[in-house]
Amino acid sequence: MAHGHYEAKIGPSILNSDLGALADECQRMMDSGADYLHLDVMDGHFVPNLTFGHPVVQCLRKKIPTAFFDMHMMVANPEKWINDMADAKADQYTFHAEATDDAKNVIRLIKEAGMKAGIGIKPGTPVDVVFPYLEDVDMVLVMTVEPGFGGQKFMADMMSKVQKLRSMYKSLDIEIDGGVGPANIDVAAEAGANMIVSGTAVVKSDNPRQVIHNLRSTVQEYIQKGELER
């Protein structure tokens, strides 16, 4: 993996938006300057909640042909849905390290299906769990809340995981998800997170365009700062 540049990317999570108007909400986020869309898939097993599956993704793709779909697969058998999500034209398939005994194989299957691969860890999972896969994945997701429930408080102590990953890989995409917004973007950006999932703070804002812009420019500032210091 090239030691070099990583970019600030803001991905609204549309889980706390109006699920009856999902395509419109996704489009509204793209129109507000989102870099990608973070789509939460929950199976009721890995997490105690149920959202939507690949048929919904397929419909969203028809309405929103160009957006980058980052699928956050909070599912017990990640390999089971890979081909369906690829067929639904998802771009990145992020599975949880805790959900499989054979992450290497899951990553291989995701790549073979033509998607980017992300690996995610829950707050209670030590960051070294993902170390063996850093050469193979496109992204690591550090959860900053317990997955499965919305509206939780951002766990700032997860930033040590982000720092550790960033110190090892200067150009890895490091995503954080859970309770992230203008109030804590500084600590996240300083730690080295560059893919920022924000739900409530963006979706429920009166001015989502402004919030997305502020989040992105904060992350960009820290990226530039880091490059000057190197």
Corresponding CATH superfamily: Aldolase class I
Q: Determine the N-to-C terminus distance.
A: 18 Å
The CATH topology annotation reads as TIM Barrel
Total domains, how many?
1
CATH class: Alpha Beta
Instruction: Tell me the strand order in the biggest sheet.
Output: 1-8-7-6-5-4-3-2
In DSSP terms, counting alpha (H) and pi (I) runs of 4 or more, how many helices?
A: 8
In round numbers, the mean pLDDT is 94
Give the amount of beta strand, in percent: 15-25%
Tertiary shape: globular
Low-confidence stretches: none
Derived structural class: alpha/beta
Assign a percent range to the helix content.
25-40%
Largest sheet: 8 strands, parallel
Q: What integer value in Å does the Rg equal?
A: 16 Å
Written as H for each helix and E for each strand, in order along the chain, the element string is EHEHEHEHEEHEHEHH
Which CATH architecture is right? Alpha-Beta Barrel
User: What's the total count of β strands?
Assistant: 8
Summarize the structure.
This protein has 230 residues and is of the alpha/beta class. 34% of the residues lie in helices and 18% in strands. Helix 5 (159-168) packs parallel to helix 6 (185-191) and helix 6 (185-191) packs parallel to helix 8.
Can you offer a commentary on this structure?
This protein is of the alpha/beta class and 230 residues long. It has a single domain (9-229), classed as TIM Barrel (Alpha-Beta Barrel). The chain is built from 8 helices and 8 strands, in the order βαβαβαβαββαβαβαα. It has helices spanning 22-31, 54-63, 82-87, 103-112, 159-168, 185-191, 200-203, 208-229; strands at 9-12, 37-42, 69-74, 92-96, 116-121, 139-143, 173-177, 195-198. An 8-stranded parallel β-sheet has the order 1-8-7-6-5-4-3-2. Helix 6 (185-191) links the parallel strand 7 and strand 8 (195-198). Helix 5 packs parallel to helix 6 (185-191) and helix 6 (185-191) packs parallel to helix 8 (208-229). It is globular and about 45 Å long. The two termini are 18 Å apart.
